[in-house]
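Sequence only, no structure available. Ideas?
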Amino acid sequence: MEHLLPLKVVYLLMFGTALLWTVVYTLVIYRGFKDKFCGMPPASICANITWEFLFTFLMPFHPLQQIVTLVWFLLDCIILLQYLYYSKGLYPKRTLHAAVFSLLVIALLLHYGMAVEFHDKWGIYSAFGINLLMSILFIQMLLVKGPQGQSLPIAYCKMIGTLCASFFSYSLFPQSVLLTIMYVLIFILDAAYILLLASRSVSSTHKPAITNKTI
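Reply:
I predicted one. Tokens follow.
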């Protein structure tokens, strides 16, 4: 398959995507242990882990990419365990496990169906669909639950890593209107998330401390 970009640039974009998204997952795990709160929404976790499972074990398309997706899969397993552990006091155990299992099954079936329907052996359509979902849910999580489990380094690495993936994907499928729309929407939402998270961080840093005064 021909690329619009020079081969060196393509390899650089692929490396940037693999590295930065590995950093994203690692920082989410670190922040989760630090805050005792999983910083990734459950729907995103299930969508990610099933995509990685599908294209690591069931439909691998390249040995090097298989290694990358395996690393991501293992990191997402840790994030999923974090979510189950830190959410066990919020929901009944059976309800929590049933909900997560249902999301995993639904996500896996959708990924497989999209790969077959769109003849997408690389899983690009579902990958950017997941990314768009994550961008929306990260904003929703920040607005509802605050910045627990989240950080600006995570946000920046997600945005730049996704930009690398977007340019790489555009070099392969410049004619795809759907993918182009998703590239743009993800970038806008990621930029908005960074601004919101930065403003929350600044406001919490400058929040006046409450002192007890003796009258």
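Residues 151 and 197 are 8 Å apart (CA to CA).
Hope that gets you unstuck.
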